[in-house]
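does this look right to u?? N-carbamoyl-L-aspartate version
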Amino acid sequence: MTIELAVPETRPVPWTRRHLLGLEDLSRPELETILDTAEDFAEVSQRRRKKRAGLKGKVVVNLFFEPSTRTRTSFGLAAKRLSADTIDFTTSSSSLMKGESFIDTAKNIEAMGIDVMVVRHSSPGAPHLLAQHVGCSVVNAGDGAHEHPTQGLLDMFTIRRCKGRLENLTVGLVGDISHSRVARSNIHGLLKLGARVIVCGPPTLVPPSIAQLGVEISHRLEDILARCDVINLLRIQFERQRHGLFPSINEYARLFGMDSQRLRRAKENVLLLAPGPINRGVEITPEVADGPHSAILQQVTNGLAVRMAVLYLLCGQPPAEG
Ligand code: NCD
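got this back:
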């Protein structure tokens, strides 16, 4: 007779994955393992001596084929805090300009002895393709409109820190749901950790099929304000839109921008997030972005701890005490 032992869903699991390609692939215990590990690293960042030896002797390369401020800097600093050697690859000055393919470029860089490639690319699935061709770890730092797993993780980490939990919270994702990789990673992660998700935006920016993931759809911010514990304000991804999907930026700001008036109609302790870059006066007004409900800069701080956790879990050694 076999006895099946019930394993609590939230028990930390030994990490076995080589890549982090998306939150859709991860189980609840895996997500919680990353968030709990990030909690330890957030504590390290508070100390006077912030450096740890977890990635000593390892090499982390940033391979960014799209612009980035926060994600690129954050991965670079996370790797340095863990004592890795780091390389920043810039596409505009590379042999890609001479016609070398994406995979050939990556394989040549890997031949120098790379342990982790952090990849951002405008094509959905580019990091997944790379993972099939290289022997090192691959981290998806944003692939087209598909996923941005570390942004999803740092959003969840920030919510968990500010609200004490994720279970049973209602999170509104407002804006360009169709073209946002942040929306997709948030949806996969938040639903697995027990939150409810409402996506809200103009009908042209919210694909009806997104409901199949288990989210509620709304086209009126007013209708969801009083229900949300957290509102994540997403940028309109003009670079991914083929043609105008709403009349004007002013119109969008009037209907979906978070301003003081709308904030008064939201829950008293609503938490406001935005992945950045923010467009002040479009998805959020300056006074709200800089106000007490906003955790925008905390997200950036937390991103560092989350990326240290991810790099460490993928290829780190236990850090020395001290
Ligand atoms: C996001 C991205 O690149 O997808 N930014 C980020 O990584 N902080 C969101 C965006 O660009 O709107």
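The longest helix spans residues 296-315. idk if thats expected tbh
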